[in-house]
């Protein structure tokens, strides 16, 4: 239910559900994961708290997953810790080479970290190949089309 509330931008309802859940199963990993995602969606000062929860889950887990590493990286990006985020995303790609969300976040993080355009283009090409219908790719293509139309309109004036 927390995932559903977050998907429809009802962080308030997700927070209430997490609080209720914490009362009876505080140390259960799925409850901790729901709490971390809710704090990540809440933003602001909650980014650090979400990062701590994801870090704790990664250390406690016998097997860290690509998704968990990507979640840690997203927190690091929100905290402007781009070198650390890049390391986590690279580690996530080692576990799952074509994970679309990892690749999308790697493209964004590479831009913020100031990596060369060639590196960002390579990651974007890998994402386009792995998941051409990923929302990041679709949104980027839509913005490129809008830009081209605006440029053509201004060029004809």
Automatic annotation (TrEMBL):
It is found in: Cytoplasmic vesicle, COPI-coated vesicle membrane; Golgi apparatus membrane. One of its GO terms (molecular function) is structural molecule activity. It comes from Coemansia biformis. It comes from the Eukaryota. This is Coatomer subunit epsilon. Keywords: Cytoplasm, Cytoplasmic vesicle, ER-Golgi transport, Golgi apparatus, Membrane, Protein transport, Transport. It is a peripheral membrane protein. Transmembrane segments: none annotated. GO terms for biological process: endoplasmic reticulum to Golgi vesicle-mediated transport; intra-Golgi vesicle-mediated transport; protein transport; retrograde vesicle-mediated transport, Golgi to endoplasmic reticulum.
């Amino acid at each position: 239910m927390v995932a559903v509330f977050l998907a429809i931008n009802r962080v308030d309802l997700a927070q209430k559900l997490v609080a209720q859940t914490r009362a009876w199963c505080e140390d259960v990993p799925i409850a901790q994961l729901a709490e971390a995602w809710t704090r990540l969606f809440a933003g602001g000062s909650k980014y650090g708290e979400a990062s701590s929860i994801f870090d704790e889950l990664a250390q406690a887990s016998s097997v860290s997953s690509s998704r968990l590493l990507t979640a840690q990286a997203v927190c690091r990006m929100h905290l402007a810790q781009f070198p650390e985020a890049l390391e986590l995303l690279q580690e996530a790609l080692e576990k799952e080479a074509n994970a679309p969300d990892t690749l999308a976040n790697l493209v964004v993080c590479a831009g913020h970290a100031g990596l060369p355009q060639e590196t960002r283009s390579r990651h974007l090409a890998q994402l386009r190949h792995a998941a051409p219908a990923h929302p990041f790719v679709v949104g980027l293509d839509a913005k490129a089309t809008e830009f081209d139309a605006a440029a053509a309109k201004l060029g004809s004036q």
